Amino acid sequence: MKHIILGNGPAGVVAAETLRRAVPSDDILLVGNEAEPPYSRMAIPYLLEGNIDESGTYLRKSADHFDQLCICQRRGRAVSVNTEKQTVLFDDGQFESYDRLLIATGSHPVRPPIAGIDLPEVQTCWTLADARAIAERAKPGSRVLQLGAGFIGCIIMQALIKRGVSLTVVEMGDRMVPRMMTPEAGSMIKRWVEKQGVRVVTKAGVEFIEKGQNSPLTVALSTGDQVDCDLLIVAAGVAPNVAFLEGTPVHVAKGVLVDDTMQTSVPGIYAAGDVAEAPDLFSGRHLVAAIQPNAADQARVAALCMAGQPARMKGVLAINVLDSMGMISSSFGEWQGVAGGDGVEKVDEANGRYISLQFHGEVLVGATSIGLTEHVGALRGLIQARTKLGAWKQRLLETPTRFAEAFISCQRPNS
């Protein structure tokens, strides 16, 4: 049997390795569309900081790792899939046939439709090629404007500041990381980042970008301000890579729709990672949870099912852990709360602490925290296990920072 894995990021690599253990003699083809060996995009900030070199981003350190596992590799980008003939057409005009197909093509950075967005001084931060281009322009004293204060935007801020640039961040939302942080938590992060020397402009967008008279770029904001800069970094979100599936019977919404075995609407075709839209743990609604641990879990399930072994995902849990220039924040599950639920919020900004807990009945369904790193895994554990808190719910409503005690107590019988 021949397995093709489209995408050699974390999901693709884990799937290939899981398949090899499950089916020692099957053919496995791992396909990536970049020149470099499989690498982690999440390591790019460390590369920009100078803490690692490019090889430090590689997912597997041995050059012959995949050869040793008899996993074939191919460079190429899928152009189309013929589900009846079970073939994939690549951008070099070549076809590959498959018995099982895994779509792990990840996502790509979104470039908003802004005049001037394609100027050479405008960069995304998603690939190693992007990182090289940013490093070339982000020199000490350079003026850098970053569009977007979401997850990607926040993880590269520290790297940019360490490079000695003057950084301005523009965010359309009313706070930083609005899609993973409560209003109070996002505002706390904003105030913290500003204390570290970053200018943050919220409730603002970019109207147009043009060549400047006294600088490489002049950027016009929706506030009416104009900002001169040497480099503009677009960190306005990502979108799943699904264009090559157009015209196929594979169902696509925001991402590729899958069931709890990670199989798509077409038998024998699976999806995992940033490209997959899977059922949520609590609501059952489909969502894309673009985080590396989730990608690995989905990849293992998909690979086992491709090998004919029973495996299922219990449901996707939204997980976000973020380091914003030393302020560690996290959000889990239904952090915004649910209809008919209740919650509690406690703020201790003087000590860099914040927590919000959201309940549905006696189950913790969501949480947001800042500065509570030591036992934050307990929050994930309580939510993911759908733990019935009993008397602990009232205790947490009164003192939400006792979540680690609640986690330990609820593991014991008759607690």
Layout: helices, strands, pairs:
Elements: E1 2-6, H1 10-22, E2 27-32, H2 44-49, H3 65-68, E3 72-75, E4 78-82, E5 87-90, E6 95-97, E7 100-103, E8 107-109, E9 122-124, H4 128-137, E10 143-147, H5 151-162, E11 166-170, H6 183-195, E12 199-201, E13 206-211, E14 217-221, E15 226-229, E16 231-234, E17 238-240, E18 256-257, E19 269-271, E20 276-279, E21 286-287, H7 292-306, E22 319-324, E23 327-333, E24 342-348, E25 353-360, E26 363-370, H8 376-384, H9 392-398, H10 403-410
Helix pairs in contact: 1-7, 8-10
Task: Give the termini separation.
Answer: 51 Å
Strand content: 25-35%
- The number of distinct helices, counting runs of at least 4 residues, comes to 10
Gross CATH architecture of the largest domain: 3-Layer(bba) Sandwich
CATH fold-level label of the largest domain = FAD/NAD(P)-binding domain
* Helical amount: 10-25%
Low-confidence stretches: none
Q: Based on the structure, what is the oligomeric state of the protein chains? A: single chain
Mean pLDDT: 95
Class by SSE composition: alpha/beta
Major beta sheet, specifics? 5 strands, parallel
* CATH fourth-tier homologous superfamily of the largest domain: FAD/NAD(P)-binding domain
Describe the strand arrangement of the main beta sheet, using strand numbers: 3-2-1-7-19
Rounded to an integer, what's the Rg over CA atoms?
23 Å
Would you count the extended β strands for me?
26
Q: Given the C-alpha coordinates, what overall shape results?
A: globular
Question: What is the name of the CATH class of the largest domain?
Answer: Alpha Beta
Number of domains: 3
